Amino acid sequence: MVLSTVGVIGGGQLARMMIPPAVELGITIKVLEEAPGMSAELAATGVGDYRDLETVIAFAETVDVVTFDHEHVPPAILRELVARGIPVRPGPDALLFAQDKLHMRAKLTELGLPVPDWAAIESADELAEFLETHGGRAVVKTARGGYDGKGVRVVSEPHSVDDWFLALAEDGRGGALLVEELVSFRRELAQLVARRPSGEVSAWPVVETVQRDGVCAEVIAPAPQSAGRIADLAADIATAVATGLGVTGVLAVELFETTDGRLLVNELAMRPHNSGHWSIEGSTTSQFEQHLRAVLDLPLGATGSRDVWSVMVNILGGPADGTLQDRYPAALAAHPMVKIHGYGKEPRPGRKVGHVTASGDDLDEVAYQARSAAAFFEG
Amino acid sequence: MVLSTVGVIGGGQLARMMIPPAVELGITIKVLEEAPGMSAELAATGVGDYRDLETVIAFAETVDVVTFDHEHVPPAILRELVARGIPVRPGPDALLFAQDKLHMRAKLTELGLPVPDWAAIESADELAEFLETHGGRAVVKTARGGYDGKGVRVVSEPHSVDDWFLALAEDGRGGALLVEELVSFRRELAQLVARRPSGEVSAWPVVETVQRDGVCAEVIAPAPQSAGRIADLAADIATAVATGLGVTGVLAVELFETTDGRLLVNELAMRPHNSGHWSIEGSTTSQFEQHLRAVLDLPLGATGSRDVWSVMVNILGGPADGTLQDRYPAALAAHPMVKIHGYGKEPRPGRKVGHVTASGDDLDEVAYQARSAAAFFEG
């Protein structure tokens, strides 16, 4: 049977951006949103808590395959869906690697993939020991629940994360923190791939991501000076991760390009990712269309760039007064070539409320266009 | 005030294809569909007869501006909306030129725009007279209600359209038929433009349309051998029509390129048009995004081609057995570069149920890709 109805758990902008390719491809998309009026409202057929088994099952029974706007659905619920014969993509076993950073680090190490030096630590003493052997500084991350810079601290003092140890102890489930070497990197890259249940994997060009305050601010596609070794290596690593972890759908692998020319895996996301928004206009097949094709086990589309350069700039926060739309007349008039994306979210400091993408032959011009268009939505 | 909610009357595929750009641009789209489950179902907030004043007003009061999937809403209803202060784009006066071919021919003639020789006829005698002065053959069209080859006859005998004269007489409203010279044309072209209420007009490259049995089968963008005089003339004509008729939104002008190198206006459509579907992937701004921008009076986007060539092929009828989706695995596997569009409509002989678009540098290759992909959905 050819599957044709995708159910997305979570009503955020990633679910929203799956709507256009679903409409164009002629497949049905349904969204379980957390509350009324979320970003993906248009396709919402259910409202409720994704941590509630009954809610999720009632929704899942109306679709052919379940996928996600985020990685927070509890594994026990996902396993119950699978037990009931509902395809879940990515599946619970794969998703666990995105939900738990210690689990992910252990698996990537087992697969022989390049990662920063790391350890699981359960006390300030163990952190002290790691600091001692890694130049006195390190990055500590909570294994679960972190994103956009949350749950990440750069530390040089063994007692810097005692509050996290305490929280873990109080949580009762125990568990450890992840500590990693502070990688000396030249820049950050992201490699997106998509993988079908049948095993087909397709990679987009590797991109450069620019973070500000731990949040993605800008993406340049392809990453400058990546042609050849870096591009091949990034694609090979992400393909190995997707295959090794049994991912279905889009997988984003965030990478450090070290000052000595190595690529190390930083983070994973098993869903469309901010670093792939450029692909909506910039690639023959966008990450959102590809994600739908992958979870429906349809043949994947071509992933080449449609322009020499694409630059995506996030709209973070949005206008201090009024809505994004208030700024459209000026922004669209000044930038007829730039594509402006709004997520239907209320402006709020630091919140991702939209993005813009510019494309063309000249990177300086393209970056100027994108940054200048995004600036219309600030302040 | 910046308008941000567009209401579309009619739930067909043109309304459906406005959904993706609305979602991406972050504006709200609502659709009044004729019956449940139509092509634009996802955005439907109302169901009912567009010829019913109450139904249309109830819908229109929930949006900032009203626009259309088709041109069939009765003028009296449109004028009532305007009287109530609801922006209608295109407006009733402009739309009348698309609803009534005699009205359109008279206006284009008044504007000095190139049209085939024509006359309004009310009897077989008048038709006989026209045939006599035009080589014994002519095209007769009903002034209202025709589309996709319906309401059009090539005639050589004065009594060939007596049934139409009879119907007009029985209708009680009287009225005439349009008779036109049979134009000797080399090919058919279509020129799309968009116009804002503020007067800004933007034109896409002129395209070549290939009709089969009076229905658009294929579109080549830009029209081969059109660079220079033909492209400029087509854009000038369509701009003059849009301005002269006060059109807002997308206007499609179907043109004959005559064997002696003139361009003559054949038909008009005041909405996104089949001849512009290529622009979804092929232009920086698609006709559907531009239509939304135009009716919201937002600055228009750039309309250049993103590739040297784009070819759009309609999926007419669709599979004799099963759904479009049944053919996706084979079609997508064979054509990873081609974009396949399904309209969510049941296959039925002759019905437009989808289209495919291919783009690239080599017209032969692009046309092959598009035709071959479309063929997966036949028979």
UniProtKB/TrEMBL annotation, chains A, B:
One of its GO terms (molecular function) is ATP binding. Pathway: Purine metabolism; IMP biosynthesis via de novo pathway; 5-amino-1-(5-phospho-D-ribosyl)imidazole-4-carboxylate from 5-amino-1-(5-phospho-D-ribosyl)imidazole (N5-CAIR route): step 1/2. This is N5-carboxyaminoimidazole ribonucleotide synthase. Residues 105-296 form the ATP-grasp domain. Keywords: ATP-binding, Ligase, Nucleotide-binding, Purine biosynthesis. The lineage of its organism: Bacteria, Bacillati, Actinomycetota, Actinomycetes, Micrococcales. The keyword ATP-binding applies. It holds the Pfam family RS_preATP-grasp-like. Gene3D superfamilies: 3.40.50.20, ATP-grasp fold, A domain (3.30.1490.20), ATP-grasp fold, B domain (3.30.470.20). It comes from Leifsonia tongyongensis.
